[in-house]
């Protein structure tokens, strides 16, 4: 009976195709979350001692549609089976974030995980000043990605190279799109932004640039992705919901999802999609 149940679960797992959102908490990397999800599903299907990081014969293909910083939380879109082909649309589509920034301190990583590299007065900054400066960051703008990022040089992430003590040059400024920014709260030194942007945008760079524009400095204290593509925080599966049953329910409500074709591919960590936040 247990064997039949295991075989049934494995068959359903192999047939998964589509995209669905999970909640990424602060701490683990996006790849860590993906691997934990794979392990939970393989364990439920009766695949013993799964090691999702190794390229070995398994029963599904899975990737995510855009890296979230390890210190960030929120919506992480996952593609499974043929759904991995849909992730490029998630990378290019609009995303929404809530960011809490702190004036007066800049860090080397541009967020709270880094070392304070600069401190400047911020008492002169008013709410009106900040709202005025934020207008210049809306629309099609040029942005320099942070050094500590998922971007790569010679196949290695810049953040990894920096941690190894290697010298890394900043990537050139590139065009990004910001659809809107709202200052939700202003309680110096803290402030809260809600924003919607396109692919390739870094909230950390925005907050750093905003601090400079205000003749001070700033870094991101906390960051939450509240929406990616059609998915919001209300739609995400939390860790205790990483089961075949919950995922099937979400996939059934996914536009364009096809549950009739089985995907007998290898679990491939290389399908992880890097989005530059």
Automatic annotation (TrEMBL):
Query: Its catalytic activity?
Result: uridine in 5S rRNA = pseudouridine in 5S rRNA; a uridine in mRNA = a pseudouridine in mRNA; uridine(55) in tRNA = pseudouridine(55) in tRNA; a uridine in tRNA = a pseudouridine in tRNA
tRNA processing: is it a keyword of this entry? yes
Region span, Disordered: 258-277
Q: What class of enzyme is it?
A: isomerase
Report the residue ranges that make up the Pseudouridine synthase II N-terminal domain in this protein: 54-203
**SUPFAM superfamilies this protein is in?**
Pseudouridine synthase (SSF55120)
What InterPro entries does UniProt report for this protein, alphabetically?
PsdUridine_synth_cat_dom_sf, PsdUridine_synth_N, tRNA_psdUridine_synth_TruB, TruB_C
Q: What is its EC number?
A: 5.4.99.25
Q: Per the similarity annotation, which family is this?
A: Belongs to the pseudouridine synthase TruB family.
Q: What is this protein called?
A: Pseudouridylate synthase TRUB1
